[in-house]
Automatic annotation (TrEMBL):
Stated family: Belongs to the HARBI1 family.
Record PANTHER family: OS04G0422900 PROTEIN (PTHR22930:SF290), PTHR22930
GO annotation, cellular component aspect: nucleus
Identification of the protein by name: DDE Tnp4 domain-containing protein
Signal sequence extent: none
Major place of residence: nucleus
Keywords, alphabetical: Hydrolase, Metal-binding, Nuclease, Nucleus
Domain DDE Tnp4: 188-347
Species per Swiss-Prot/TrEMBL record: Miscanthus lutarioriparius
Top-rank lineage group of the source organism: Eukaryota
GO molecular function, one term: metal ion binding
Alphabetical list of InterPro entries matching this protein: DUF8040, HARBI1-like, HARBI1_dom
Domain DUF8040: 59-153
Native organism taxonomy: Eukaryota, Viridiplantae, Streptophyta, Embryophyta, Tracheophyta
Amino acid sequence: MDPEDSSEFEEDEEEEEEDDDLMLFILPALYLASTGIGTLDQRSMVSDGTAIETPSQVSKFNDAEWICKVLEDDRGQGYDKLRVEPHILLELSRYLRSNDLLRNTRGVSVEEKIGMFIYMLSRNASFQKLNDRFKYSTETIHRHIKVCFDAVTPMTAEFVKPPLIQAHRKISSDTRYGPYFENCIGAIDGIHVPMTISDSEAAPYRNRQESLSQNVMLACDFDLNFVYVSCSREGSASDAAVLYSAIESGFEVPRGKYYLVDGGYANTPSFLAPYNEVPYHTEEQDESNFQPMDYRELFNLRHAQLHRHIKRAVGLLKMRFPILNVATSYRKDTQLKIPSAAVVLHNIIQRQGGNEELLCEQTIPFASHKTVNLPSGDDTYGYDVSAFNSECDMGNALRDGIALRMWADYESSMCLISE
């Protein structure tokens, strides 16, 4: 059963709320009194009355303890369990509560609900796994996961916003990029997220690797925050077609500004792509002290160095939420929401100072029934979007202007070095 199938349980929500505050304050107090952990002023609970953690046992009470312990830990075990620092989980819970997006219900705090939700995304946890870990009935788990999807997914309007139009400091302060890329506001890439879907609906979602996926478009700024996410397009759709769909759905690029894209997209004034059939392997070039031979190679090198911000952002997203790497057993509608929810949570973690180094050091096991082969993105633009085709000449002129200007300055600097 999927969380969206749980509407029959929603009527119980109103009744449960009546006892919330009483249950949430009494249980931790009883625990503290019985264990002698400390006085009321020293106890390990937040002001909203969240409970405290103990090692895994079988009572519902101990799972309330578990969430509060996660909040209290400074990373450490709490981070290892939920893939997000406890202070960030606490701030998110306060935001959800203060904006009436989630509410405490009988014996279940907002912190525990969002904890269940993040646990699901970071572990690809089945409802049985959530049931085993949190000791609630399957119906209760379904209900709380559903309300978390309903609360978090619409938060894209607040936490996934267009970037600033001013030149980013990483461009303006670096002579390799400024002033050549002063109008660049971010980078775009597409990822394929595996799906499980019925045979009758599968055909459009079958990608060129013959597996099932949705093609998700992501745009980020140079601080590794996502500024746009477009979900639900079929795995058979090209990257350029997904971008065009996003534009039709409201994605805008300010006049005179542009995003960097890879070769799978058309080269237009709003979406600047590298030169085709020219070296574009920034890691190898960096390691070999690559010396470009002409303006096109130099442009591709600088383009690749900036465009890899989206690769880093996607890498962080997938490390935080490995559910994006596997096909889940949820209903189609829920699967299509997962990337948006993950992006919202990623941005919140980034803005709250989530520790990237600690993330890279952690390895979280997650459930996966099978490994699938997914496309890594279109290699070259296939001229399948007529609206882009008509803009390619203008995009080529913009790219040449940047590249030639950059090359002239590069040659001058090389001459000065040789002298």
